[in-house]
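Q: Predict the assembly, please.
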Amino acid sequence: MEELDGIIIHSLRQCGVDIADEVNSLREFTAELTVEGVVRCLRSIDPALGNAIATTLPPGMSARFRAGTRLAQACQDLGYTREVGYHTFLYGSEVETRNLLMFLVERLPRETMDSGSRPAGKLAVLQASIAARIREELSAPWVPPFCRPLLNSWQRPGLACPFRTVPLSVPGDITDPMVHITPEERRYWEGHLKLAAFQVTGVGSLIMSILQRNANEVATAAAWETEWSTQGLPSHLSADEFRERKKEGLQKRVFEQMRLAVSKANQMTAQQQTLVNEDLQQILQSFGTESGSEELLKGSRFTHTEKLVFQKEPDKQERQLPRPSEPVITSKEEQQAAEKLREEEVAELRQKLDELTMKAESLKEDSKCLQAGIAQVSQEFGESEEQLTEQREVARVRQRTLSLLPDAGNSIAKLHAMVEGSVQRIANLSGQWEGHRAPLLQKIRELRQLQLNQEEKLAWKMTHLREVRDKRRRIAVEVQAKEELQRQLISEYDETAQDVSRSAYTQRILEIVGNIKKQKEEIGKILSDTRDVQKEINGLSGKLERTFAVAEDLIFKDAKTDETARKVYKHLAALHENCGQLIDTIEDTGAVMREIRDLEEQMEAERGREAVTNLEKIAGDFRAIRQENSLLTSQLKDS
Amino acid sequence: MQTEFLSALNRLPAEERLQLLHGAADELCGRDGPRLCRQIVATQSLHEWQDTFRMSRDALAQAAQGVESTSGSSELMECVAGRRAELKAGVLHATHNISDVRLSDFNWVLKLALSSDRLARLQTPLLSLGLNVEGPGVDGYHEQISLEMGRAELQSLVSTLEQASKVVQQTK
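A: Predicted assembly structure:
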């Protein structure tokens, strides 16, 4: 019974009933505790049913009675078949309460029994832990700042330090034979590389730097993995080739962007020309034109400095103007004159500079034109050279023909012979060619076939490889998810480990079942014994009957003649009758004993129900109800 | 410039040349440079040492970019060969930061405002975000921008930044 009570109390605690730790059995339950437990269970089983009932008993007696009746009705609605009424809650015995609570605990939905319905996943666990931590911190009392260093709590100001990192330098894996290590690297790692703890100084923090380095490497590997599987593999390139090609593409792209930016900047400067100081502008423009085509990267840098200079320029001018250049000048007029002079000089110089830059521009243009002219002329020269060699060739052929003209017939015959020889030779050669060609063609065809085969094989291998990679990724994801689940389950298991353990329960149940089996066997044995005894009794009584009948018969025959025999017969009859009476009495005694035992059991049960105290309680409650009623009637009269 | 650097480097004692170069390389890679130690001050004036340090930093940066120096010292070559990848990454990082101002670091703190001067009970979460903005150059412009935002403002900020990130992704 104690274990059963333990289970019931544990379940009630899980439902949210506040049961004190020293309560170990249902005997110690008060009426309030019983009502609260029943209502909480009802709420868990059927919220609509349970929410209508308050968890605490009202103070008024009649209200208590009504609450008890309603609770009993709710329990019957749930399907509780035993007797239940308001008295179960208000004056209930231990047995009744246990039966009712057992019924309710069995009906409890599984989710509230085991807390495994929380959402899975690392994020959910993290969020739950964050929420728990914040709740804990919010519930902590506020502590004045000067007391905080004494406490080891979150309110200490030193804990909230910023996340500052520095890049760390870490030596490579010396044991890895795949990585080639130069002797310089080795010397650096051995002689000059400081430990990571000493690389971090000043603002950075070691743990944060290590975290960042690790995160960086993980992110880089992940990004490369996705890119390689989405773009790299279908391109049929090796990893290095793919990297090379990507680099080229990026460089081209950067180049384009730079060119665009430079041209845009040049347009902008042209528009701004009227607004800003001109000579500076020209210098910048010259920078722009110089660096425009050759060094695009630097050009863009110049445009940046250009922008910066534009921003800073106005205040620079302001700064320049009021600065006293000649501290010896005392009178205002002289100062003005000097300033005027200076301005004139400046204007003159500026004009000169303009002229010079114009001149330089025009000279540059000229030189460009001249260079273009040189290029054209050299090209023409090349063309005419080519023409010359052609003409020379033609002239040579013509000279040979002219030298052959005087001896025409002979020459023609020779020519014919030569032509014929040539024809023959051509035929010969073509025959040879055919002879060579056929096997070569055959070879080409074979090679082509081979190539096709190989390509097919390659394609098949590629698809296979892709499948394998996909599979690998899937499996990795699965493994991760499973590890996640495992970790979560382990944490949950650790949480629930303090509860009453399941295996102990099952062992106990098995023991109980074994006991019951043993008892059943014993009962069977006793029953068979009883049956044997009954049989024996029946046999004996039958034997007695028969013996008596025979003896009576014999004696009755003699009794007609013999006086003593008649006496004997009478005695026999009396003996038989007395013995019968004796047996009846014994049987009656047994029945009475049984009855007594029944009555004693009933008495025990009644004593268990604490009828006397309950009766007193009921009487008291009845008086209270009466009092309330009289109060109410007097109130009614008053009103 | 190169000869100047070499002569300045050669004025140092031999065992300190490599040390100085590695210190300069550390600074190029984004860590703190070397501390002034007593021996260095004993052999050189502070100004000289700073000049040498700056020159060696520039020389390392050039060497890491692949500019072949005709009269590079053996120590310089040794240093660059030993940590080429690291130096290249550092120089690249500097080149990335080509724009006028850029975000170099950020920090955030989540706060719960319990009350204000008007309301006794507020219970609003606030995020204070600190953005460190830097200009070009090693010792350039520095500014820390602090923002404090409520939930809605933070969401609008995050969505704006996401849009910006999408645009950046598209240009890749």
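The radius of gyration of chain A is 58 Å. Chain A has a mean pLDDT of 80.
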